[in-house]
């Protein structure tokens, strides 16, 4: 131990610390001063986590073991210790003997399970096994490393990219920590925030590390100039013609079933009749169904045994029973109990296939056609709730037809309900050869924009498919090379981008190192100089396989050629190059993988974040290639993967705003469904033009400008019709519509007095002479003009005062603030136009959860009435159009004629309606910003009548979208 401590004390970091790195070290020192030997930091790729981890270990002065995700990352830790910490000393250890002061191994070196362990026992032990049971799962080689480590402690254990231990080796690593002893210092480094973890992972994370000592998001370091700026781009493609041919048969099979079920050619009950009854909550199958849990038991008895008739009869009479006052769940309760079926019903309603269920409202996620999951939810409920319980031959035939089609949607029907299975359509789109062709197109555009500076990383899931596909996938037109790194490499090597061999790609995986023939001799010579004996073998007409190089050496050699520009494209697998591997010259990343976890997305895109010393203006393009087959319900699966990739990832969006979600790729994209063919082509065309505007995008990042570094929820509102003007300063009577015969034309008292005064002045002037008379007439005329002008100015305020949306948003903001829901009120409200024509409403300067509360409350207020607890009325005066309309409005006001207005009813946000105190504060805020507030209980006679009258109506045609922004 003393030799290791001496070695660590003798070393020091040979560079200077960046500001956020010093903040991390200060946080570590604060922990250590408080007696805490656990340190956890969340930093984006390229931020220098390796340097921070080694410095923390050096300061602790104990023998150190670093566990890293793969051999490439092991090499980087070793190289960083040997080169960046001076003076030279004993090299970093990378062997299982743990002889160095600093040792680096892969997680697999220790946490590999011994062969022959039954899967159920393994899962149970990993979840809840004791310390000894967990260690007993390990391979003997891993146990040997732990036993050797026991006698060499105390240790500092550094877990690099520690999200890995949470998803794969978590429980095992916890057992290893326990085995090394209580004095073990634990350092966790990752780029994945805790909010991305599942419940079980979060529990394990908290047990090991506790809260993060430092968390820095990537946009902060881009704004600070530490990391390279980046943009997210999408290439949307269709399957190849050969793939389309096979897909057409699957599409036709589903289309035929859908036609038969809807048109009552199959079964005793049309599918839509069943769905309508279920969505109106007027019929719940005996025993209930659980459509959001595909493996739930059906739980049905014999038809009619409960005295309510057969399922067919109950479905047919469902609407009548509901409308007759029978028991009915509220929509919110139904949505909570059956989320998948409720979502499907609203999408079917949006498509005009059924009526809008009572009490429901369409949100952004529902304004799209039903997708495969929606059809599965409806078909599953139909089967388990009706068909499986029926002995009618027509229902038996319908059940058999559905069972034949469900595998194409990725499900199979059992006696216990639906179970997830592999979807051939999903598999086809995910591995489509069209995505490889799209990569060539992308790199041609990038090469045209960047020239010799192009360094592109192409990432795939695997080198080539291994083993035989599942029986359900056997008919799919795929080969061992479909979607593979080998196919991408071969295609790019044969492409004529910038002339034959212009891209000069290399292929590096855990098992293979390949290159174009033109580069083979140079690579062999470089490997020989490094002391390796390398052979070659032909792969195809233009590429060769290099043999004899260990994986770590192959990665190092490929990286050297790639960084120098002798190779412009590096093709590899996500496992090897998508995490931990670093090369500052990477400026383009093409994601061909099916990975959607926040960890994988962050890591893959992190490869291009390191600044390039030779290119200070570097901006990285991160491409996602997506294949969509919009004819088939499951043809959107690859697009929905695209959505999940970007769901929690922040990037520069339209207008220079940093936001999460697929809309930062293109504002035309929806998080709920792929665009139509024309929009897809436009999205791809805009993306292919993006590399030509790199300098403009870099300027949009506003590097060096101050930033708050906070996340905020943003509600984007688009209205198909005017919200009207809530003119709170006008008397209430002026806004109330009145019948013409209620009162005749009446001049306002002020104008009457002015007229009388003018007549008197004129009469006196006539008595005193013509000159004075003319002066009096002029004076009276001037007074009349001034009065008219005052009236016009007052009416002009109707057109130039605060917009109704601002008034409503301000009322919500103040109501939340005065009730203690947010730290600030309307003073922090920000309403601004977005580039897509919508209005963006945000509550700034508050924590993310408070801004989310405001956005959700405003969304409820603007939405059509569904199932509100309380209503609030708003007097609406429609703004006049043009100067003529303003004059007409002014004249009608002066003569006390009825003004064009009405009352709009809104739902009081549920948070504000929860108790009497909050309702009073909401009413007060409404009075300040909107006008007289009258709250009605939805359960009262008047409130119920209004809800019934307005149910399903959307008077302002509002579309609202919730987004999360970072600024």
Automatic annotation (TrEMBL):
Name listed for the protein in its UniProt record: Helicase ATP-binding domain-containing protein
Family matches, as PROSITE patterns: HELICASE_ATP_BIND_1
Record's compositionally biased regions (Basic and acidic residues): 302-317
InterPro entries according to UniProt: Helicase/UvrB_N, Helicase_ATP-bd, Helicase_Restrict-Modif_Enz, P-loop_NTPase
Keywords: Membrane, Transmembrane, Transmembrane helix
Every Helicase ATP-binding domain range: 30-211
Signal peptide: none
Molecular function (Gene Ontology), one example: DNA binding
Organism: Actinocatenispora comari
Region (Disordered): 284-328
SMART domains: DEXDc
Chain ranges passing through the membrane: 750-768, 774-793
Domain of life the protein comes from: Bacteria
GO cellular component: cytosol
């Amino acid at each position: 131990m003393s030799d290791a401590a001496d070695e660590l004390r003798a070393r020091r970091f040979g560079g200077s610390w960046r500001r956020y790195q010093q903040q991390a070290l200060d946080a570590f020192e604060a922990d250590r001063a408080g007696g805490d030997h656990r340190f956890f930091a969340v930093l984006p790729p390229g931020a220098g986590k390796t340097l921070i981890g080694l410095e923390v270990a050096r300061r602790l002065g104990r023998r150190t073991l670093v566990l890293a995700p793969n051999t490439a990352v092991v090499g980087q830790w070793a190289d960083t210790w040997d080169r960046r910490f001076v003076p030279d000393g004993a090299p970093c250890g990378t062997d299982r003997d743990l002889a160095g002061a600093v040792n680096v191994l892969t997680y697999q070196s220790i946490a590999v399970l011994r062969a022959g362990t039954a899967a159920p026992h393994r899962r149970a032990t990993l979840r809840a096994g004791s310390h000894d049971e967990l260690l007993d799962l390990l391979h003997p080689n891993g146990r040997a490393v732990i036993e050797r480590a026991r006698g060499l402690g105390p240790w500092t254990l550094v877990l690099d990219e520690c999200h890995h231990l949470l998803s794969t080796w978590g429980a095992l690593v916890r057992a290893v920590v326990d085995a090394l002893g209580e004095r073990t210092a634990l350092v966790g480094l990752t780029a994945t925030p805790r909010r991305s973890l599942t419940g079980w992972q979060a529990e394990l994370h908290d047990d090991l590390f506790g809260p993060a000592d430092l968390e820095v998001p990537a946009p902060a370091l881009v704004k600070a100039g530490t990391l390279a700026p980046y943009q997210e781009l999408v290439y949307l493609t269709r399957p190849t013609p050969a793939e389309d041919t096979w897909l057409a048969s699957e599409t036709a099979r589903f289309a035929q079933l859908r036609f038969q079920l809807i048109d009552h050619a199959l079964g005793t009950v049309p599918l839509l009749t069943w769905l309508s009854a279920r969505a109106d909550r007027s019929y719940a199958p005996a025993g209930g169904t659980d459509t959001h849990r595909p493996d739930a038991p059906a739980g049905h008895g014999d038809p009619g045994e409960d005295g309510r008739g057969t399922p067919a009869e109950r479905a047919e009479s469902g609407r009548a029973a509901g409308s007759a006052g029978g028991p009915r769940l509220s929509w919110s309760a139904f949505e909570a109990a059956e989320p998948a079926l409720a979502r499907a019903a609203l999408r079917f309603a949006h498509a005009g296939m059924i009526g809008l269920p009572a009490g429901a409202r369409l949100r952004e996620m529902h304004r799209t056609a039903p997708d495969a999951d929606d059809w599965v939810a409806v078909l599953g409920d139909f089967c388990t709730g009706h068909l499986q319980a029926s002995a009618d031959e027509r229902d038996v035939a319908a059940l058999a037809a559905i069972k034949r089609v469900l595998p194409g949607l990725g499900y199979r029907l059992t006696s216990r309900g639906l179970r997830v299975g592999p979807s051939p359509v999903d598999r086809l789109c995910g591995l489509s050869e069209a995505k490889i062709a799209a990569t060539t197109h992308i790199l041609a555009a990038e090469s045209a924009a960047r020239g010799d500076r192009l360094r592109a990383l192409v990432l795939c899931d695997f080198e080539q498919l291994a083993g035989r596909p599942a029986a359900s996938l056997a008919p799919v037109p795929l080969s061992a090379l479909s979607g593979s790194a080998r196919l991408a490499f071969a295609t790019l090597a044969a492409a004529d981008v910038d002339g034959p061999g212009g891209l000069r790609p290399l292929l590096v995986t855990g098992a293979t190192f390949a290159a174009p023939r033109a580069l083979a001799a140079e690579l062999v010579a470089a490997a020989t100089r490094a002391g390796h004996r390398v052979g070659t073998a032909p792969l195809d007409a233009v590429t060769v396989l290099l043999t004899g190089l260990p994986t770590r050496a192959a990665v190092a050699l490929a990286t050297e050629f790639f960084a120098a520009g002798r190779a412009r494209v590096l093709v590899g697998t996500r496992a090897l190059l998508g995490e931990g591997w670093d090369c500052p010259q990477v400026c383009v990343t093409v994601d061909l993988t099916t990975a959607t976890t926040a960890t994988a997305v962050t890591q893959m895109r992190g490869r291009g974040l390191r600044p390039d010393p030779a290119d200070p203006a570097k901006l990285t393009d991160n491409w996602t290639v997506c294949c969509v087959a919009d004819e088939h319900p499951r043809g959107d699966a690859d697009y929905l993967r695209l959505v999940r990739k970007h769901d929690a990832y922040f990037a520069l969006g339209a207008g220079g705003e940093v936001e999460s979600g697929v809309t930062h790729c293109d504002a035309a994209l929806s998080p709920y469904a792929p665009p139509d063919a024309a929009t897809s082509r436009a999205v791809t065309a805009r993306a292919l033009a993006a590399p030509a505007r790199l300098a403009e995008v870099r300027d949009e990042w506003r590097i060096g400008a101050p930033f708050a570094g906070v996340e905020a929820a943003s509600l984007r509102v688009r209205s198909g019709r005017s919200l009207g003007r809530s003119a709170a300063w006008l008397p209430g009577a002026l806004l109330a519509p009145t019948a013409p015969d209620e009162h005749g034309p009446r001049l306002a008292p002020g104008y009457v007095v002015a007229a009388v005064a003018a007549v008197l002045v004129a009469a006196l002037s006539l008595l005193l002479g013509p000159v004075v008379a003319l002066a009096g007439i002029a004076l009276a005329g001037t007074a009349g003009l001034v009065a008219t002008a005052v009236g016009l100015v007052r009416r002009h305020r109707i057109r130039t005062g605060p917009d109704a949306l601002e008034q409503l948003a301000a009322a919500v903001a103040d109501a939340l603030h005065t009730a203690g829901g947010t730290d600030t009120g309307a003073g922090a409200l920000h309403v601004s136009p977005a580039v897509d024509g919508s209005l963006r409403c945000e509550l700034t300067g508050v924590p993310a959860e408070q801004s989310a509360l405001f956005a959700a409350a405003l969304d409820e207020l603007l939405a059509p009435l569904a199932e509100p607890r309380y209503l609030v009325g708003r007097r609406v005066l429609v703004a006049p159009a043009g100067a003529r309309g303003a004059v007409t409005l002014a004249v009608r006001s002066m003569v006390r004629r009825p003004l064009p207005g009405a009352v709009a009813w809104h739902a009081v946000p549920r948070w504000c309606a929860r108790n009497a105190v909050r309702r009073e504060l909401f009413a007060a805020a409404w009075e300040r910003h909107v006008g007289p507030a009258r709250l009605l209980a939805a359960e009262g006679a008047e409130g119920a009548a209004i809800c019934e009258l307005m149910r399903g109506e959307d008077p302002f045609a509002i579309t609202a979208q919730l987004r999360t922004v970072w600024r």
